[in-house]
Amino acid sequence: MGRIRGWPATLTEPDLLEAPVALRPVRVSDARVWREIRVRNAPWLRPWEPTNPETPLHRSSLGPYVSMVRTMRREARQGQALPWVVTYGGEFAGQLTVGSIVWGSSRSGQVGYWIDEAFAGRGIIPTALAMAIDHSFSVVGLHRVEASIRPENHASRRVVEKLGFREEGVRVRQLHINGAWRDHVCYALTAEEVPSGLMPRWRNSLTAPRFGA
Predict the structure, then answer these.
(1) What is residue 49's predicted lDDT score, i.e. its pLDDT?
(2) Residues 20-38: pLDDT tens digits?
(3) pLDDT at residue 124 tops 90
(4) Residue 149 lies in domain
(5) Which of 37, 100, 126, 178 could form a disulfide with 110 if both were Cys (CB 3.0 to 4.6 A apart)?
(6) Is 164 helix (H, G, I), strand (E, B) or coil?
(7) Is residue 186 part of a domain?
């Protein structure tokens, strides 16, 4: 598989939240702000991310980020990943990647994301994920996207549940996280389930009148 159709891509939702939410390709020049955010958020992120003893979050240097960006850019060129930075009001707020893309008869990918704790709870990641899914299905040509989330990560599970991902069961000891092999709940969504796009569904859920409040 060569370069992905619809990549590189910058996606923007300017009006739904208090400030614009955007997805843009990762850049080497983001290294310093990435390091500052990751160090500051180490306790917030550590319970949910794959263990990397060589470069623990609280001592991350710029080197791991540069290596990560080079790897992601190579995978994007090879049609294996869509690596984005999430911005809110123009500020670096987190990352979202549709990775592990398989073509052929599968046309599937795995989504992963994280957000700076300072921006959590504002609807940024659900908005970014809805944009990413719509782009993945309607432009890139994927058919199925999965999200694997630790059962204890209630905030991340709420993100996909709000957007209508189906829970498909537990993958036992799927990933090594924070020093041990951890179970993950698998969520999934296929293109047929959102024929009119995921973003309209998310937008309607935020703007629909709420009775009895």
Answers:
(1) 81
(2) 999 999 999 999 999 999 9
(3) yes
(4) 11-207
(5) 100
(6) coil
(7) yes
Q: Which residues of 26-50 are buried (b: 16+ CB within 10 A; e: fewer)?
A: beeebbeebbebbeebeebbeebbe
Nearest Cα to 117, choosing from 185, 36, 16? 36
How does residue 61 score in pLDDT terms, banded at 50, 70 and 90?
Answer: low
- The pLDDT of 130-147, averaged and rounded, is 98
Stated pTM of the model: 0.91
Give the residue-averaged pLDDT of 117-128: 97
What distance in Å separates the CA atoms of residue 98 and residue 83, rounded to the nearest whole number?
6
**Identity of the residue numbered 63:** G
Q: State the total domains in the chain.
A: 1
The structure tokens listed for 148 are: 């694997």
Which pair of tokens denotes residue 150? Answer: 């630790």
At 135, give phi and psi (nearest 5°): -65, -40
Residues with Cβ within 8 Å of residue 56, at least 6 apart in sequence? 42
Check which CATH number belongs to the domain holding 21 and give it: 3.40.630.30
